[in-house]
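<context>
A single protein, sequence plus fold
<sample>
Here is the protein in question:
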Amino acid sequence: MTVTIAGLTSGDGELLLSLHERARKGALDAELAVVLSDRDAPALEAAREAGVEARCVEREGEKHEHEERIAGEIRDVDADLVALDGYMPILSDDFVDEFRHSVVSSHPSLLPSFNTTNPWQAAIDAGVEVTGATVHFVAEEIGGGPILAQEPVRVRPDDDAETLRERVRRAEKSAYTRAVRLFPDVRVEDGRVVRPEEDALGEGRVEAFDRADVLRYGENPHQDAAVYRDGGFEGASVVNAEEVGAGGKGMSFNNYNDADAALSAVREFEEPAAVVVKHTNPCGVATAETVAEAYDDALATDEMSAFGGIVALNRECDAPTADAITDSFKEVVVAPSFTDDALESLHEKENLRVLRTGSLDEERDDWDVKSVEGGRLVQERDDLRLTRDDLDVVTETEPTEEQMEAMLFGYTVVKHVKSNAIVLARETETVGVGAGQMSRVDAVRLACDKAEKPVEGSVLASDAFFPFRDNIDLAAEKGVAAIVQPGGSKRDDEVIEACDEHGIPMAFTGARCFKH
């Protein structure tokens, strides 16, 4: 339903024009049909410049006569919703009754708190940590109508009424947009708004984090940065981890980012596992009988790229593993726990950050959130776990049991590699990694060329389908023995034909695993 809006304002109409702009850009299914004012307000000219009908309905005669003229204008555009934005005349009970639950207004606080003419100063004087904005249905009592939407704003220690007002104004725009979006689907019962049931991705997202530390700098030295903690999260994470290193340099922005990527990857495995990460990409992953063996196998994938990297383990770090880690330069080691002997070895590297996370079996974050200009992208965390039943062999040649095992391992790893991504695997260790390439064939070439282990006989895992057979031809030339990929290309038949020509078994998973 496209919500037709009649706006009433006595000022600049900033909130109304914000709704119009969001609707124009397709971010809101609404139309600001007319802007009405009781005076020659700045909003009228601004509305006309924006292509919105604008009319001045001056106050002449009795109050009810003026309101009837306003009501007539609203009826003329067949408005579904009447939106107030700094409209000075107090609406009569008769007007409110005629447009009951169709007139909304905003207030710059979280009602019912600070229902005053200067709610910004009132919030500061009260010493609250959070205030915000409210959009509510207009009722006989000023600010007392059913609440439709709210948006919180943190009160900073150095705020005055003006700085707080500026930020609350932004919150009003957000709350008003959400209120208009919700309007067609809500009803009012017993003086409160009944909203439709929501799935996990609701209409609004409110997050509260506490600053855990101010970092030396961000991704680069010219960028300020801090790390914030979700106080309600009790699972293993690099933010909640205990620093048990020698006490040299603290964690940096990049350390946190890379360590989080490493921890996320190593948690995929039930067997003892080690992951080496550089710039958020795994450059070596392995599982083995012990974490020491797993680390050696992971490091051997690309020892040069592992220099200055991050190591994550899913078992307690013992002395042999610690000795192997400190044999070359590493930035961070993450593990559930460390033996005393391991810590003694790790402490020989003064600036090595050592993070003890505790058990990895605790809760996980359900959501992956990325910041984009003007908003957030929110998606479910990628929990894809494949079994042999998920592998659909599409070639004449069947993969061996060992190749099937490597397919599952490689596909588990490739979902942690930036797209376009290729992983070469043998049994349960990586052979080569091709990360972040703009073309898939270049990712195949990179994985093969970067491999420090023999490529011949390895299994290739791709995070997305092959658009052309050139990927298969190149893989065959390099000695790849089997392939696993999602499938779904228009040229799947050509790709399968290429595999059959080379005698390479290939399985489809039916599940893409991009990572950006």
